[in-house]
Each structure stands twice: as structure tokens, then as C-alpha cells.
Write a structure and sequence with these properties.
Blueprint lengths: L3 E6 L14 H13 L4 E3 L3 E6 L7 E7 L7 H11 L6 E7 L7 E5 L7 H10 L5 E6 L9 H5 L5 H24 L1 H8 L4
Parallel strand pairs: 1-4, 1-5, 5-7
Antiparallel strand pairs: 2-3, 3-4, 6-7
Subunit structure: Monomer.
Subcellular location: Cytoplasm
Protein name: Peptidyl-tRNA hydrolase
Length: about 190
Amino acid sequence: MDDQWLVVGLGNPGPGYAGNRHNVGHMVLAHLADELSASFKNHKANAAVAEGRSFGDAPKLILAKPNSFMNLSGGPVAALMRFYKIPVERLIVVHDELDIDFDSLKLKGGGGHGGHNGIRDIAAAVGSPDFTRVRVGIGRPPGRQPAADFVLRDFSGDERSVLPNLLSDAADAVALVASDGLEAAQQRFHSPR
């Protein structure tokens, strides 16, 4: 179908990871599903899937949270693209980004994986890096804390107080990419607030 998009939120499965910075992609999709009044159901592609439209004639959004660990996200994403017949141009991946300040978003089409193993695995599995990314800034770890430890820790109390606004902005960015295109979404969300 020409009017549907696959939106994948990256994260790790299980309640122990739910509040981690690395799981912000899952958090954005949960927020978006609430906005669409959609419920996640298990899909045979090893993912939880919800479907909905943000308004009457808006494109259909197929929201997916892979049930695999983030570094193995590619298999479920490729299976969902085959199942729903989604071309790579209509794939949006929402993920955490260390190189962007917390409470900021950057959107881009295609490009490298920037060291993000989830993005690397998806590009390999779908045979192309040419999908849209909604990069949710989580900032750099303080001091000498290893990045791997930082991303697997929960957001701080101060961060949690502004996190709902960040999740809402990311959800709005996804909907705007699908309805108006990447450039329109970049113009809205890359400008200083």
C-alpha cells in the first residue's frame, strides 16, 4: 500500500531495560501508540506491532518494537517489511543517539550507522541504509563512564522530568515525516525551540 509506513522503535526486551536510555525508541513508540489509540500485539516477525492513523486521511503507521535485543533488530525489521510490503523509503527507525544533546532530535535520511549496532544490523538485514532515522538525543556519558554503561542506565530524575516532552516531539516528528516528508519534519524539529 502506498500510504503506509513502518515505524520501528529500537530498544531491548524485558522490564529490566524498559527505563534505559537505550530504550528511548520503545518509549517513543509507546507514546505514539497512545496518541493513535492503538494497542501492541505480538506478530510472527518477532515484534510487537500496533497500527493506526494520526488523523482521517493521514498515512497508516505500522508501529513495531522488535522483541530481539537491539543489536539483532534487523531480522524482525526485514520480516515486517516483507510481510507488509514496505519499501525501504517508507521505513522510519527511532533510536537513541549519544552524539546529540539530551532533549534534542535530529532526523536524517540514509547514511552510515555512526557506531549504532541496531542501525548497523537493520541496514545489513534490509540490504540498504536508505531509511529515515529519528535520532533522539541522550547526550554523552559524564566523566569517564563507558558509553555502554551509560546507555543501559535509566534516565536521571532531572531527565525524566522533561522526557515526556521529548517523547511527544519525537512522536510528532514521525507523524510529520509520514504525512509531509523528511524535509518538512527537519525544518520543524531542527530549529532551536
